[in-house]
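Hi V.,

You were right to ask for the full record rather than a summary. Here it is.
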Amino acid sequence: MIQHEDKIVVRSSFSRIVADSSTFGLAFYTRLFERAPDIRPLFEDDITQQAAKLVSMLGLIVGSLDHMGHLAPVLVSLGRSHDAYGAKPEHYDMLVEAFADTLNDQFGFDATSAESTAWRNVLGTVGRIMSDVVPDSETQRR
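Predicted structure:
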């Protein structure tokens, strides 16, 4: 469950991400690929569209913070498609850390800031929902 305080902080800081969404999205993927270069081949060479999709999905997540149960089927479906592309459960943790790094780089939030902590909590929850479908997918492949 996402804490009320985290929801407030994430909603507030999301406006900064949206204000310069293309820069933030591209910076995020740069950080992600630095942390996990093995996942770079899972993406198109031009990451511009993927960066826009990221910010769009973040908007959906932020808009659903009070109703994550409604968003869960979307996240399960997204998790299945990510699994089909080759994403692994451990990649979600790397994503959360790359996101926190990007917040720091773009806005000066340090690792212990309320913003960094709140986003880690929210994206950790999202990642758990998405990665929980992976064992089902692996079972179906056998």
